[in-house]
Amino acid sequence: MRTTIRLIALAVSLSLAVAGCATTSGGTGGQTTSVSCDDPGLSGAEKQLCLDNKEFNNTVLGGALMGGAIGGGAATLGCLAARESPLKCALIGIAVGAVIGAADGYATAKTQEASKQNVRTIDLVTEDISRDNEKMASALKNSEAVMRENQNRLAAAEQQLKTGRISLKQAQAEKAKAESGKKQIETMLASMEEARKTYGEAQQKTGQTSPAFSKEMRDMEKQIAQMRQQRDALNQAITTSRIG
Questions:
Q1: Dihedrals φ, ψ of 165, to 5°?
Q2: Would the pLDDT of 20 be above 90?
Q3: pTM above 0.85, yes or no
Q4: Total domain count, the chain
Q5: Span of the secretion signal (predicted)?
């Protein structure tokens, strides 16, 4: 009996770990969203954007990880009930948990929660999107500040280099800081796009929809487009900079 309990616990914990590995990278480039916000080189706006991203990921990924753990544990129990090898069952639970955590974890967790509350799954998903849209609005303000301060940084560095007040090396250091600011925006943008994908997949899996869900998704798309424009504007300033 103790061995069975240990194996179920192992499957659940490792399902969480593997699911976490599958979901902590985001965006089209697969870049990690795990960033240190304590870097002294970050400006105030960049640090706040970094914190926004961490909070955002903790919220969105929580459902996926929990769904993976539930799925992994359930698979282990089902396998043991069929009198299969305990070790084989633990491995099956780990594999199932990883797949569910990566693809279906959020929808699974929300469906179970909705069943307990006797409400529609799509309504709970819509509540999550609404909360995330509020967080995105705050992140957009911070990303705009990051964009503008780095555009100004580049312009100032170019002028100072032109008048000989700073060296080329110093100007290049300022350009590197602007590139770091762009990466902060890209990281947050990747998280937002991953959230949109998660919610879209959840809606497809439930087969449910509502006017409120559609509205919140449109609002999310709009905010993602706005942050993408900020990223592109800063990228243009960097690529057209006369600092070699």
A1: -80, -20
A2: no
A3: no
A4: 1
A5: 1-24
